[in-house]
Amino acid sequence: MQQKGAIQIIEWEDLDKRKFYSLGVFMTLTTRVTVYPASLIRTRLQVQKGKALYSGTIDAFFKILRAEGVQGLYRGFMVNTFTLVSGQAYITTYELVRKYVSQYSPSNTVKSVVAGGAASLVAQTITVPIDVVSQQLMMQGQGEHLTRFKAKPKMMLATSKRRLTFGQTREITVQIFAADGFKGFYRGYVASLLTYIPNSALWWPFYHFYAEQLSLLAPSECPHLMLQALAGPMAAATASTITNPMDVVRARVQVEGRSSVIETFKQLLAEEGVWGMSKGLSARIIASMPTSVLIVVGYETLKRLSLRADLIETRHW
């Protein structure tokens, strides 16, 4: 068996930025539409007390589908689409910081850890207010008794069914501001940073590590993109497992209106024990693994499509 060459990383200076950003928005939106239901289920599982509503991910999926329909799996999605901005900010920060760090260290691991953490810091600063609102909307329906803010459902005369409309976003936003002021939109910001900075800082080096290891094991004719598509979910499962305890704390801080990360952590530990820290982990992995496949295939394809014209002939995949 012929050993396969090292996987080539397309760096920031190799890209046609106009193509990169225009195609990137489409890629990010497609990914969010695909994985949003799993994110909603994860939030409900993490916020519920014990197994008051759902016994697990599959149980939650079918109960929501029966009680609330397909639209129930997309509660808060419209406001969540504003995170497209944070997605572009994340990509830009990651690539620029990688380029900056490369001046001081040739290590891909160092570049990935620093750039991944920095990108998450920037993205979370934009994302947290959107998450605060969208998570409140996620909890409407079967989980509304667990939240501080409740949207009033509209009666649809034709069907006589209660249904949430886009107007609920404004209603929830007004309620949050009235109760907590501007700082209410950054509730759980510290918990989010403690969750997503490590998650991002871990995902990138694990992704490159798994991709390189797979390239050593794979036949020479195996496409690099296939190996990267396998490495993505492996890295996601690893990073999600390590950072899940903080993700549970983050969800409770944001949805229940708590102010102390440490007190929330202690209470969770006292009420539900160590296993409480694993709540929503399966849903998180279910969401993160296909997300990682989509992100990796989309992102690596995006970078190849955005490669500068003068470099196309020099790269082999």
UniProtKB/TrEMBL annotation:
Pfam families: Mito_carr (PF00153). Keywords: Membrane, Repeat, Transmembrane, Transport. Solcar repeats lie at residues 18-100, 107-213, 223-305. It is found in: Membrane. It comes from the Eukaryota. One of its GO terms (biological process) is branched-chain amino acid catabolic process. Its main location: membrane. Transmembrane segments: none annotated. GO terms for cellular component: membrane; mitochondrion. InterPro entries: MCP, MCP_dom_sf, MCP_transmembrane, SLC25A44. One of its GO terms (molecular function) is branched-chain amino acid transmembrane transporter activity. It is a multi-pass membrane protein. Belongs to the mitochondrial carrier (TC 2.A.29) family. This is Solute carrier family 25 member 44a. It comes from Labrus bergylta.
